[in-house]
Amino acid sequence: MMKLYWAPRTRSFPTLWLMEETxxxxxxxxxxxxxxxxxAPEYLAINPMGKVPALKDGEATLAEAPAIxxxxxxxxxxxxxxxxxxxxxxxxxxxWLFFGPGCVEPAMVQVATKVEMNxxxxxxxxxQRVFDVLDAALNKGPWILGESFSAADIVxxxxxxxxxxxxxxxxxxxxxxxxxxxxxxxxxxxxxGAIAAG
Length: 198
Ligand SMILES: N[C@@H](CCC(=O)N[C@@H](CS)C(=O)NCC(=O)O)C(=O)O
Prior knowledge:
By secondary structure, the chain is of the alpha+beta class. The chain is built from 8 helices and 4 strands. α1 (13-22) links the parallel β1 (2-6) and β2. The structure holds glutathione.
């Protein structure tokens, strides 16, 4: 059974949502920040960054929430969380899966810290551009790939929920509201939210 290392109210949320979407059994291993368990040698052997989430699947271990999403989606193809290789939708799936950590995450950090960057040099350009691109993509909907829900929605939907709803770092837009509502209506999202609340 896969083991998901997690902590409440952290970036573990997308991976909890992911595991709940698969319908497969998994073991949750709580990493207790109050005891610095994320820096314990046995945990650093799983994720040398000393951060949650991380996943163990037999001999395989990995961290970084979007990578866990990609891995689990492939391990459980019956969950239909990723267009298979050869499907034209696969291109956009990979694009949005990487757009999360490559563009949305740094844009959120930039909004929070107000650090000015040269938009030509910054890989994400600037926060305005990132959220404009997302707005345009989500106007089509209902999901980031159109009709089919995928692990890319878990990455992008978790990021937007965090930035727009929970921390109000980014102004709401009609497309964001509709999309976050659609994500939040999924039973797996709700189960993950209850777990992540601790
Ligand atoms: N890039 C990582 C970020 C993970 C991360 O920053 N986790 C934070 C909680 S949200 C953490 O574990 N912090 C504990 C620490 O740094 O000691 C991912 O996307 O999974």
